[in-house]
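Give me structure tokens for this 249-residue protein.
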Amino acid sequence: MGRFYKKAIVTALLVSALSTTAFAAPEDVYTNIADSAVIMDAADTSVFKPASIKSLDDYDEHYRLYKYDTISIRIIGYKDAQGLDSIMIGTDGYVNLPYAGSVKLAGLTIEEAKQVLTAKFGRYIKIPDMSIIVTNYGPRKVQVLGEVNAPGTVELASDDMNVLAAISKAEWVTTYGRIKKVQVIRIDDGVMYVKEANIKDYIEKHDISQNFALEDGDILYIPKSNKIDFHQDVLPLINVYSTYRALTD
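Here you go.
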């Protein structure tokens, strides 16, 4: 079966799941969630950090390269720049460069990437200095499920990766959506992390701690009740979404 047909079938499956899944409201929140899931305390910012980039300089300093980002590399004293312009980071996080070979850059800051590449290039050429410029930021995709007007995958710009922006891109919550109880889910190294975001407090009380910074592949679930059963309401959709991403990325 061709890749195009696989993508079409899985897309149809995702749409079907999103349109037919009932969002129940059982007695206990998180009762049946998988044992490996980590429910984050409200004060714990080790996984979900507030989206609080203050300036372009701060953004550049803390920005981490990601798949589909396009970069250009400038090396002082290296006249032959062929192969160092418009380099796209692959889905595996690697780039292929002359002299340096295959190098993983995804997940690194610009400064960290410079250090890695300086060491790689330094085996063959003398490098007094190097600059790395991000010429195009790759798209990030987030899944927004539950009580929103357009549930499904939303694409966000790299500097707009936060809970409020994702819900807005999904055409906002329905009449029954509880923005005080937004469940933000991240799966990292096989562990599911879950934290609740109170977007109502972010909007009305300007509590910036409630609008989390998101990462590619994060999942948001907006309930219509204060009580949520992840096993029944969310996990089936996560499974469908994971299959969709595996076949279409």
